[in-house]
Amino acid sequence: MDNHDPELIAELMEAIGAVARTGAFTGGSAVERFERAFAAWSEAEYAIGVSSGTEALTLALRALELKPGDEVIVPANSFVATAEAVWLAGGVPRFADVDANTQLVTAQTVQAAHTGRVRGIIPVHLFGRTVEISGIAELAHKWGAWIVEDCAQAHGARCGGCRVGTLGDAGTFSFYPAKNLGAWGDAGAVVTNREDVAERIRLLRSHGESPRYHHRMVGTTGRLDAVQAAVLERKLLRLEQWNADRRRVASQLRDALREAEHVLAPPDAGDPFDHVYHQFVVRSSERDLLRAHLEQRGIASAIHYPVPIHRSEAFSAQNSTADVAPIATLLAEQNCSLPIFPTMTQAQVERVAEAVCDFAPASALKRAAA
Ligand SMILES: *Cc1c(COP(=O)(O)O)cnc(C)c1O
């Protein structure tokens, strides 16, 4: 992957060296340069660098003045951080189910999760696929609620011509190393076109301080490191190409999986939507057998995610016995992420696809024989 590219490593080491020589490790010109570049690249007015994707979400919710007990609609099918941030900001997550085909929230599932205490909605562009925002934005408008897009898996994806992150009140990004744009450690950012939100996040990420030792609000230590900013500034220049490579690999994988009888490949994004394939997730009713079969052939796979958030130990206490998100529960039993990365070759794609295609679970054979 990109971290095995010796030229890139040399370039990033030099960028880090330049930061070390200035001695400005928090804030300073490296952070400001990355923020300007990321705002321009995101086609947003403002970008504020923060310490992680979880902190980006938490600070965005605080900047939007979430009050204790306010409810925020989040997908049951996401990484846990989406719901954690609501909790950390003093709110209560309300879990929305997802569409089985796209694995994303829709206006219908968001509507079904609504209560009179809902103050905001966090659509997640999960696995890199863009959520259909327009219907959700209409609901938000009707309810007087805000929208924060969780773009942690969808850097650079477009929806109806606009970059993700600019479709609601704010958009949040994680630069955890494994993301489509990854730092050399933890990092994140918020983008927004709202000056008031940008201003509050800038204060909140550094103890509400302005000027020095004058604290205007209770903030935190949530700044972006200068070393990470320098790495990200360089890697950002390659992101468009990496995303294009991921789309190419995904389309090759999808073609090669046409004959696979026991797995369902992820559908193409379709205009005006987009997919930057942070993950390539197939579904199988015999998922665990499929993974064992792949492992025997030396192919690593993963599960995103084995437990839907609303049924996790951390959040299950909030739910009644009836499953509020049965599709998310089903997907947790069937999802299997196949290998995908920008430098994946056609030969590697074929090796993965062949292993998937010759998967023949006993239960399916039994059905065929009956
Ligand atoms: C990675 C991720 C986060 C959290 O980002 P961190 O940088 O790990 O805190 C939030 N939401 C989603 C959907 C993610 O994939």
Strand order of the largest sheet: 1-9-8-5-4-2-3
Mean pLDDT: 95
How many whole angstroms does the radius of gyration measure? 21 Å
Bound molecules: pyridoxal-5'-phosphate
**Number of helical elements:** 12
Structural class: alpha/beta
Task: Report on the biggest sheet.
Answer: 7 strands, mixed
Helix-residue proportion: 25-40%
Could you tell me how far the N terminus lies from the C terminus, measured between alpha carbons in angstroms? Answer: 46 Å
The fraction of residues in strands falls at 5-15%
Summarize the structure.
By secondary structure, this protein is α/β, with parallel strands linked by helices. About 40% of the residues lie in helices and about 10% in strands. The strands form 3 sheets. The chain has a 7-stranded mixed sheet, sandwiched between helices. Strands 6-7 form a two-stranded antiparallel sheet. It has a two-stranded antiparallel ribbon with strand order 10-11.
Description of the structure:
- With 370 residues, this protein is an alpha/beta fold.
- It is 40% helix and 12% strand.
- Helix 1 (6-22) runs antiparallel to helix 8, helix 2 runs parallel beside helix 8 (226-256) and helix 3 (53-63) packs across helix 4.
- The protein is globular.
- The chain starts with 5 loop residues before the first helix and ends with a helix.
- Bound molecules: pyridoxal-5'-phosphate (PLP).
